[in-house]
Specification:
The complex is a heterodimer of chains A (about 350) and B (about 350). In chain A, about 60% of the residues lie in helices and about 0% in strands. Chain B is of the alpha/beta class and about 350 residues long. Chain B contains 14 helices and nine strands. In chain B, the strands form two sheets. In chain B, strands 4-5-6-3-7-8-9 form a seven-stranded mixed sheet, sandwiched between helices. In chain B, strands 1-2 form a two-stranded antiparallel sheet. Chain B is elongated. Classes of the chains: A mainly alpha (about 350), B alpha/beta (about 350). Chains A and B meet through helix 5, helix 7, helix 8 and helix 10 of A and helix 3, helix 8 and helix 14 of B.
Chain lengths: ~350, ~350
């Protein structure tokens, strides 16, 4: 049984539910993890945070899965219960060792929180766990034990005689030693590759911060319109990340690079619509992806950018954007909030690729 | 001549348009053609036979009476619901408060920024209000004493809509008898059976101001109220995040008494004592005076004081504050040793 499920169910029930109910729920959740794909998990995220789900069959399908294990599972007026269970599914993905969609799911959850009123969230512990997973995984991927130890192999100093039995024994031992050498050298190669990758990533980020230059637009950041800079720097930092998830201090790098280019304007708020419309005028493909239908309103910046490109004017995309994301295009954001969201959405696209 | 509905006539003759325009293909009158017959209406029993068991949707049908815990699940499973426990000795005004809220919404279009959006326990509400109405043929308004049903707590449901943003919110009041609270105040074991408190967003403890303003009963009344609180805190049924409102009910009766100043001082002492005793264990205690159904001679309006309580009950939730505290306190098991990860941006002013 999923140990935290009773706690998450508190919001649903006046009285304590039986252990049997939680066991059936847990069985269904584990079945979902084994049989469903990333698109289904993204719908669980949408349901959990309260975003619209375009797949009209999703709720019925989810109800059916739980009904299989518990015939008394509520089939109507069950939206809050499905939200709780969706959150439990998301949490279980993140907590399952080696689940292939762990990182994408955790990043998608972070992306989906943009513009959400935190008062509307339930069981926020799940979000904290996802954040903690990303932090711990980032550290794990970038920390190294010192493995600069020599490869220890042993060989006979000389061949005592040419007796076939002796030769067989010697060659068998040589075989073993070569195998051991191969394994050790491969480990060291992986270790060194990973170390180089981390150092390369750090070096590139260092120089990017130092240069304050946009690789996407090929000009200094200070020469770019302020409203667009957060979107650009979020994307460019993403380009420099070689290992998922991102380094711990990513937000500090964004702050540093924005401050160095716009020291007096850094506290100025930006309207989302202004940022998107300004970006559209540049005609650059900042958020291109093959996964448009998959990410949808989980990535609101991506959605806004796509809709604005399809729209003929600066306001034509507003109503559809608000309808699909529940976010007003006139929402005011700090430049760092915008930069972070641009970064997260770019990282999600990277993880899916 | 009455018009005939041709759509209810079917002809087995292919190509006949009698069901559309009433004209028989053979040129016969409707009653003469043997191929014509009325379309059978499928009986309900036939329909039910066509639904396979797996397609049946089990649905809770509410009687309208006060809800039991199982019926409440239909509400709490659908949307975020605030649960309010009304606690206090018998006749301290718990049920009158609920009835008064209902009465107010019946008389006014809105109250305190909220519109009445319905209730699954309308009959239960009406029953509780009945004795306060002229239709009951009583000389004075009254509230029937809540029946003692220890194993089957009942809930009264309100759905309120906030004016302006239109957000709907469900709230459930417990309607628990004073006798049950007497048992709780005497026994930790009885306390721990009271599961619903752990789910409560708000715990409202009533002190009867009329008894507190009577020198012969005030100390016992104070002791009874403190006993409930102590019992629940000691059995860990109330925790540091539970939102508690201490309500001094029947405030109109206190105001009509002589030595009013002395009575109010006594009540202030109670409030201070509660604050002192429980400030370490409970972090959110607030105090209110109410007169749910003030005496006609009183200057207080109907439902006095409820306007301060209702927004708290609808908009605040201890369950969510518990969640947020927990979510902020989950500790990380590792920290980075890389200097690059320790960088912190410091803005130079």
């Amino acid at each position: 049984m999923i140990a935290t499920l009773p706690e998450w169910y508190r919001i649903l029930s006046i009285q304590n539910l039986t252990t049997e109910i939680f066991e059936t729920r847990s069985i269904s959740i584990k079945k979902i993890l084994k049989t469903k794909d990333i698109g289904w998990f993204f719908n669980c995220i949408r349901l959990f945070v309260g975003k619209q789900i375009s797949d009209q069959n999703f709720l019925d399908e989810m109800t059916r899965i739980f009904l299989e294990e518990d015939p008394l599972f509520k089939q109507k007026d069950n939206l809050l219960e499905l939200r709780v269970l969706a959150g439990a599914v998301v949490n279980e993905i993140i907590e399952t060792p080696k689940h292939k969609e762990k990182i994408s799911t955790a990043i998608a959850l972070k992306c989906s929180l943009f513009g959400i009123n935190t008062k509307d969230l339930i069981n926020t512990e799940i979000i904290t766990r996802a954040n903690n997973f990303l932090i711990e995984e980032s550290i794990r991927q970038r920390e190294f034990e010192d493995k600069r130890t020599p490869v220890n192999l042993s060989f006979e100093p000389s061949i005592p005689d040419t007796n076939p039995a002796t030769l067989i024994a010697i060659f068998t031992k040589i075989n073993e030693q070569l195998h051991k050498a191969s394994v050790t050298l491969n480990e060291k190669s992986d270790y060194n590759s990973r170390r180089i990758q981390v150092l390369e990533e750090e070096s590139n980020i260092h120089w990017w911060i130092f240069r304050c230059f946009s690789n996407v637009l090929s000009k200094p950041l200070k020469d770019i319109e302020y409203e667009i800079v957060p979107l650009i720097v979020g994307k460019e930092l993403n380009h420099l990340i070689l290992i998922l998830p991102w380094p711990l201090a990513f937000e500090e790098y964004l702050k540093k690079v924005i401050y160095d280019s716009f020291p007096s304007e850094m506290n100025k708020e930006i309207l989302l619509k202004d940022a998107i419309n300004a970006l559209k005028k540049l005609k650059i493909d900042l958020f291109s992806t093959d996964h448009t239908s998959l990410i949808g309103n989980i990535c609101p910046l991506f959605t806004a950018y796509s809709l604005s490109n399809q729209s003929g004017d600066e306001t034509g995309w507003f109503s559809f954007f608000e309808k699909s994301t529940d976010i007003k295009p006139t929402i005011k954001l700090s430049c760092i909030e915008l930069a972070k969201q641009s970064f997260f959405e770019s990282m999600l696209l990277k993880s899916l690729n | 001549m009455a018009e005939i509905d041709f759509s209810k006539i079917k002809c087995d003759h292919e190509g006949c348009t009698v069901s559309i325009d009433g004209k028989c293909l053979e040129g016969l009158e409707l009653s003469q053609c043997s191929f014509h017959h009325p379309i059978e209406v499928e009986s309900a029993s036939n329909l039910s036979e066509e639904i396979s068991p797996s397609e049946e949707i089990l649905e809770t049908v509410f009687s309208g009476e006060a809800l039991n815990a199982n019926e409440c699940r239909s509400i709490t499973s659908a949307s975020i619901t605030n649960v309010i426990i009304l606690a206090g000795r018998a006749e301290s005004g718990k049920t009158t408060l609920i009835s008064s809220i209902f009465d107010i919404f019946q008389k006014e279009n809105s109250f305190d920024g909220y519109i009445f959006g319905g209730s699954r326990s309308l009959i239960g509400l009406e029953k509780r209000c009945h004795e306060s109405r002229i239709a009951s043929e009583r000389g004075e308004p009254n509230t029937e004493r809540t029946k003692f049903t220890p194993d089957d707590p009942k809930f009264i449901h309100f759905k309120l809509q906030k004016k302006g943003n239109g957000a709907l919110k469900d709230i459930l009041f417990t309607d628990i008898s004073g006798e049950q609270f007497r048992q709780i105040s005497n026994s930790t074991e009885e306390c721990q059976k009271f599961d619903v408190i752990k789910r409560a967003d708000h715990f409202v403890l009533f002190f009867d101001s009329n008894l507190l303003s009577d020198f012969t009963t005030r100390h016992q009344t104070k002791t009874n109220g403190f006993a409930i609180l102590r019992s629940l805190v000691e059995s860990n049924m109330l925790n540091s995040r539970t939102m508690i409102q201490i309500v001094y009910s029947k405030w109109d009766l206190l105001l009509q008494k002589g030595e009013m100043k002395e009575h109010i001082e006594f009540i202030n002492e109670i409030s201070n004592e509660i604050r002192l005793k429980y400030s370490d264990t409970i972090w959110n205690i607030r105090f209110f005076e109410i007169a749910s159904r003030p005496d006609v001679t009183s200057n207080l309006s109907f439902g006095y004081g409820i306007d301060k309580l209702l927004p708290i009950w609808v908009d605040e939730s201890s369950l969510f504050s518990i969640e947020r505290e927990k979510s902020n306190s989950v500790e990380l098991s590792t920290s980075s040793t890389r200097e690059f990860s320790k960088y912190r941006f410091l803005k130079i002013d």
